[in-house]
């Protein structure tokens, strides 16, 4: 029983009238894993998260969380998960302690249990001296850390982090990464959505890339890089394609990221040689990364609404 997946999705689909937001999503998340759900705006990530705890009712497929069906057993599932949503949704006029006490009472925790738990978690998130501060006096990073405290109040087995570090400064981002890695090492299962590919590489042992409701890539970060975009990338200025082309080996890839002209080759030395033979100096030479995989699989064009 302990080996049963925490989340098991088979062919999960969601239609909003004629619009297919999710098409046949398969996903398995085991205990203690951190799985990243990546994809452009509108790919269906939040829709899937909503399906997990019954806020969105799927139109098709099988879905189990802790072996329970969110369509009929959402209440039992919600008790066992902690969610850091995209918006903090804290009560601005109340203090940190008042906010946390309210959420603890929603979760059925008595004041006697809640208060020491809140104190412990505030200290864990380096907020112990903010207990009596009103929310509106906190910085964005403090509010985000407090939203983590709220998600952890009931000591959940599964943490769902929806863009946990968007818009935060690097020091807060790194602190939250440390905490997520630590929570995972303590056996928590984590599902995270993010637009930061480096964040996904740092945190996740499995990645699922969604595009327009469909899974377009899945695997461990290194596996995805090795499979979809192995080697090294040279980033060249816009408009040098014709100067580079005669010097490319057949297996090398010429592509664009924004306006920039990029070349992927198997070895770093290949790119040094390309600079010498073409006479074009690269802006940057680097190993392939998850961002390359993401742009390759989802296309790099902007969505209409951007
Ligand atoms: N209640 C709804 N009614 C109609 N369409 C919806 C509804 N909820 C979501 N959608 C549509 O479903 C698609 C998927 O949306 P979703 O919010 O799941 O994307 P996402 O991957 O989470 O995007 P983001 O990165 O911007 O959060 C979008 O095109 C969205 O407009």
TrEMBL record:
GO terms for molecular function: ATP binding. It comes from the Bacteria. SMART domains: AAA (SM00382). Keywords: ATP-binding, Nodulation, Nucleotide-binding, Transport. InterPro entries: AAA+_ATPase (IPR003593), ABC_transporter-like_ATP-bd (IPR003439), ABC_transporter-like_CS (IPR017871), ABC_transporter_ATP-binding (IPR050763), P-loop_NTPase (IPR027417). PROSITE patterns: ABC_TRANSPORTER_1 (PS00211), ABC_TRANSPORTER_2 (PS50893). Residues 7-237 form the ABC transporter domain. The keyword Protein transport does not apply. It holds the Pfam family ABC_tran. Belongs to the ABC transporter superfamily. This is ABC transporter ATP-binding protein.
């Amino acid at each position: 029983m302990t080996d049963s997946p925490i989340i098991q999705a088979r062919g999960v689909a969601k239609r909003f009238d004629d619009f297919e937001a999710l098409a046949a999503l398969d996903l398995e998340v085991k205990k203690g894993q951190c799985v990243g759900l990546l994809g452009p705006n509108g790919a269906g990530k939040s829709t899937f998260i909503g399906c997990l705890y019954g806020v969105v009712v799927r139109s098709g497929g099988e879905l189990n969380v802790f072996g329970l069906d969110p369509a009929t057993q959402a209440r039992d599932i919600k008790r066992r998960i902690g969610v850091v949503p995209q918006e903090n949704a804290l009560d601005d006029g109340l203090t940190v302690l008042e906010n946390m006490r309210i959420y603890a009472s929603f979760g059925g925790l008595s004041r006697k249990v809640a208060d020491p738990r809140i104190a412990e978690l505030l200290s864990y998130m380096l907020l112990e001296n903010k207990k009596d501060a009103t929310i509106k006096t906190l910085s964005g990073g403090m509010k985000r850390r407090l939203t983590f405290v709220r998600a952890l109040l009931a000591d959940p087995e599964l943490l769902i982090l929806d863009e946990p570090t968007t818009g935060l400064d690097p020091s807060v981002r790194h602190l939250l990464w440390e905490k997520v890695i630590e929570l995972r090492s303590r056996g928590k299962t984590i599902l995270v959505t993010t637009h930061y590919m480096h964040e996904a590489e740092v945190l996740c042992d499995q990645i699922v890339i969604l595009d327009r409701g469909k899974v377009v890539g899945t695997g461990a970060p290194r596996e995805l890089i090795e499979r979809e975009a192995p080697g090294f990338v040279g980033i060249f200025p816009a408009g040098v394609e014709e100067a580079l082309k005669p010097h490319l080996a057949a297996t090398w890839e010429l592509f664009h990221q924004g306006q920039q002209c990029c070349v992927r080759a198997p070895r770093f030395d290949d790119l040094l040689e390309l600079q010498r033979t073409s006479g074009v100096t690269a802006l940057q030479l680097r190993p392939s990364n998850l961002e390359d995989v993401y742009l390759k699989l989802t296309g790099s064009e902007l969505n209409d609404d951007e």
